[in-house]
Amino acid sequence: MLVLKPISPYRLSNLLRRLKDPNLALQLFQNPNPQIQSSEPQKRFRYSLLSYDIIITKLGRAKMFDQMEQILRQLNKESRFVPNEIIFCNVISFYGRACLPDRALKLFDEMPFFRVLRTVKSYNSVMDSLSKCGEFEKMMQFYANFRKKVTPDVCTYNILINAWCKRGCLDDAWKVFDEMRWNGVRPNAVTFGTLVHGFCANFKLDEALKLKEDMIRVYGIKPNASLYASLMKELSRAGELSLAFRLREEMERNRIELDARVYSTLISANFKAGRKEEAFRILEEMKVSGCKPDTVTYNAVIHGFCVEKDFEAANEMLNQMVEEGCKPDIITYNIIIGGLCKEGKWVEANDLFEDLPRRGCKPDVLSYRTIFDGFCGCRRFKEAALILDEMVFKGYAPSAASAHKLVGELSQEDNEELLWKVLTSLGKANLVVANIWDLVILKACHRHMLSNVCELADNLIVL
């Protein structure tokens, strides 16, 4: 009879790393030697810390948090080694990406029970997760306690600056920048990149350009491609395309490699300026330089074609990106669906929308809102009502303005059955707001849709 060789802890780590399916990886981790037959009693498997790290990371990335926490509890029972802090930093980050701030805080509080010393790294992980979850007040409260126990580093201040910039509070972001210098913490490229991006996002182009100069002249820090891309995007939006190209020349002089984001920004800017030939020249130059176009690059080109109403070229570019191994994302399809809807091509838009699952792309809330608005714009109210019902069933909702517009249009027609169907869907999504009440009650008064207005009000309250 064939006797299988037991899997060693080292080999388990290698096997776990190769497995792409987190469920299979979990099964292997929980039962590494299921078919070993021996007359001797099996010893308890001695997991390595690396195996724990790999399986926890796989489960966290797959958002299998209950299973991940089960492995953490098992890890806590290990007495042969002390877990690394980085494992917990990664888990806290997974919670942040999944918008689970309470779990992130809970794990941080439990770290001492794992015999793990919390340093500034784990504090920063919590700060970053709270920021990503939009829990600004909790983040600031955590930071107040943070400062009493550990010394903030440049990463801490970068997280704070980014949080203030996201809120549009640039003065407060600048105060954090001053505070870090007073505390002897030297800003880095990420610090300046965050501030420049914040200024650009708030249309403060002059301040952003000046900060870039100070970064080089005062602090001796070389800007990175991401910072240049932010400046180029804002310059293009302001109609300063020539200045954007000067920045590109500056990058080349300073031997800063142009990345896909920079190329994509320039391609998009040229399309907006009506310089399609120049946009294509940059795309070809990008390929020659060895910088492979990514989804963002192709989306910029496809958007340019859609703006020009050249949907045939947009579809050709869509096919080209697939042939070159670049997978379209939902943004790609939303761009084309939106362009078709704007031109009243609701049949083509709907065909593409319905084909999304076959293409391996799940429609998002913008997909539904775009096709819904497209049907409303073409006065295809029956199709719009069907999309609305499907949208609400999947937990999405149209914009308040679109819902009001549809009810308003239906109130002018005699199809009371369709109007009631739309109101039922809106009621499920809790979207029968005051202005919609006004429209429907006014219709009831004018056309006597129900025996009286009170009966209509009672039905709407039930919704």
Automatic annotation (TrEMBL):
Highest rank taxon of the organism: Eukaryota
This protein's UniProt keywords: Repeat
A Pfam family per the record: PPR_2
PPR repeats: from-to residues: 119-149, 153-187, 188-223, 224-258, 259-293, 294-328, 329-363, 364-398
Keyword Repeat: yes
Transmembrane segments: none
InterPro entries per the UniProt record, alphabetical: PPR_rpt, TPR-like_helical_dom_sf
Signal peptide: none
Matching Gene3D superfamilies: Tetratricopeptide repeat domain
NCBIfam families, per database record: PPR
Entry's family note: Belongs to the PPR family. P subfamily.
Name this polypeptide is given: Pentatricopeptide repeat-containing protein
